[in-house]
Amino acid sequence: MTTARDLLVVVIDTRSGTSVEQGDLSLALAGAELLDLIDAGAADLDGDRVVPGPRQAAELAAEPATDDPLLRQAASSMIRQEPHEPVEDWLWRRGRDLVAAYLAEWGTTGSAAARWRARKPSLSIDPSALADSPARRHANDRWAAHEPVLTALAAAAGVGARYDGDPDDGPEGRDALTDLGDDRVVTVLAAVNEAVVELAGVRQRRAIETAAFDNIWRAV
Q: Which residue spans traverse the membrane (predicted)?
């Protein structure tokens, strides 16, 4: 199991059928993939830019960093030439329709979750759509243990309190993330939260514009 798959399982299991914004979750999944690629040595960060990791392209081709098909796809999509893309650009590019991609990929192994209609703006799946398995139990064990990275990603997706930069926020606060001893993790998680906040602003502006347009027609 990858962190992205663990995240999707946790979101489905903890939401109990209520909705999560698909865009928020897609951004969080993209962040999870990037963290796993960094951990595998397939990617690294140079400041806030995504660069190839210690394992060179030839080595990755001969010995993939992961046997997960979507994570391999993420690795192959990395921009390897300068100027390398910022983390936030990676999140927006890789995150596009990523929830649907994961659910569709699950469908190739028989998961009922793949029958979810991916065009909906929010995610609402009954947890019973996921079969009990060691992978599902592993994800829920990470969640029950308050694993900091998974907790922070889930919060960005809308499960739990979202990190807002206050060091007193508990497990989701920057101090807890800094304790992981890797500035790259903090950089990725902060970028995920910033992208989610930006997306929320876009949704709010669109809602205001739609309401204003409706009011104009009512006045005619």
A: none
